[in-house]
């Protein structure tokens, strides 16, 4: 069992229950993307797949620190992924 810390709520959890997030540069802006398979290259941050943890991470500006990126990071792809996951589970 591998333990990671959620960048949103800061709780430790098993890696299999968290979503890995990586940063990709698109033109002049960084985007935080979900890495569901855990195979994308680059530094990763971990997040519970819930809108609450995503909101906490955004408010705390945790993605920039965890991914070691300066500047603004867009999180629309993460929000869309979490919304899609919740719609499928209900």
Automatic annotation (TrEMBL):
<dbReference type="InterPro" id="IPR035931">
    <property type="entry name" value="YlxR-like_sf"/>
</dbReference>
<dbReference type="InterPro" id="IPR007393">
    <property type="entry name" value="YlxR_dom"/>
</dbReference>
<feature type="domain" description="YlxR">
    <location>
        <begin position="4"/>
        <end position="70"/>
    </location>
</feature>
<protein>
    <submittedName>
        <fullName>YlxR family protein</fullName>
    </submittedName>
</protein>
<dbReference type="InterPro" id="IPR037465">
    <property type="entry name" value="YlxR"/>
</dbReference>
<dbReference type="Pfam" id="PF04296">
    <property type="entry name" value="YlxR"/>
</dbReference>
